[in-house]
Amino acid sequence: MHEPTYGTPAYITHYTNQLHELLTNYGTISEFFFDGAKSPEYEKKSIFDFPKWWSMIRKLQPQCIIFSDIGPDVRWIGNEQGYAGKTEWSMFTPEREGIGKTHNPYQNQGDPYGNKWVTGECDVSIRPGWFYHADQDSLVRTPQNLVDLYYKSVGRNGVLLLNFPPNKQGLISKPDIKSLKEFHAILNETFAHNLAMNGKVEVSSEYNNSDQFSGRYILDGEPQDSFWAADPSDSNPMLTINLDKPATFDRIMLQEPIKYGQRIGAFAIQAFMDGRWQDIAGGTTIGYKRLLRIKTVTASKIRIIFLSYNNTPALSNFGLFKASPLEVMQASN
């Protein structure tokens, strides 16, 4: 914003030249982040050419993901606290919004009727700010806090973008690395063993009565390439998982086969306890991944009921897990 040509057509050329350098002199670029932040005084004289810049990125770095408030590949989630909405659709209509112009729930929740697939990206820093300050070494997020962010981003069908600011030596600092490694260890321990893996699945229906869409595929360890799908005529689609032995768990995972779209709008999960089915969890959207934190339950039968959906409900992966002792539940689901 302090470039002398800012706010004039010449700025387009200046920016384009900078962008060309970044895309050609530094190897593979994984993501280009168009931050929408700017002060009101600069808002009045902003002149940008996003279509031109996006086209250049596509040409010079075809695998690069483009981020902005509205995509085109991933969108801002509407906050910098690192969490997606409890309802989180990957569909989105960019034309409803603008880069650097809106901060509303639409970005945080997506749109089941959106005209583009623009997944929400949850950006947050491991420190109080985006840049390194030595006096903040004691303020690095704890591993447990990072786990909480993981459930509220990845666990709500979002993408977590965690900022690690380099220090004055150009390195990630030791407190940041320590927290990250412990965070990773907690996730590995929590999700190491799927307690439902050896269960048998009963279904209310299978698409076209075909074994290609068998319920057993939700427990085959393939999160996307194989899946169960209900028959379109099924007015009460559900899955029942009969575990090989009673399991004690407090974490539930569900995944949709998203290469066929995001379909499920609401679901309920029940456990058979004390001789009857009892509600233990539920939610709205699932998408690529939904992680639920619940009170500890011991059961041998679990039932998933699909309450609303915009197309034939399908599920590619299901899991039951017991949280690592290192994990501290800091917030409700």
Gap between N and C termini, in Å? 41 Å
Shape descriptor reads globular
Largest sheet: 6 strands, antiparallel
The secondary-structure element order is: HEHHEEEHEEHEHEEEEEEEE
CATH class of the largest domain: Alpha Beta
Mean pLDDT: 93
CATH T-level topology of the largest domain:
TIM Barrel
**Quaternary class:** single chain
Structural descriptors:
333 residues; alpha/beta; TIM Barrel; Jelly Rolls; six-stranded antiparallel sheet; five-stranded parallel sheet; 6 helices
Q: What is this structure, in a nutshell?
A:
The protein is of the alpha/beta class and 333 residues long. The chain has helices at residues 9-24, 40-43, 50-60, 105-109, 143-153, 174-190; strands at residues 31-33, 65-68, 74-76, 91-92, 116-117, 119-125, 159-163, 200-203, 228-229, 238-255, 264-273, 276-283, 290-309, 314-315, 317-321.
Give an account of the 3D structure:
The protein contains six helices and 15 strands. A hairpin with a 2-residue loop joins strand 11 (264-273) and strand 12. The model has no long low-confidence stretch (mean pLDDT 93). The relative contact order is 0.11. It has helices at 9-24, 40-43, 50-60, 105-109, 143-153, 174-190, and strands at residues 31-33, 65-68, 74-76, 91-92, 116-117, 119-125, 159-163, 200-203, 228-229, 238-255, 264-273, 276-283, 290-309, 314-315, 317-321. The radius of gyration is 23 Å and the shape is globular. It is 19% helix and 29% strand. Helix 5 crosses helix 6. The chain folds into two domains: 9-190, Alpha-Beta Barrel (TIM Barrel); 200-321, Galactose-binding domain-like (Jelly Rolls, Sandwich).
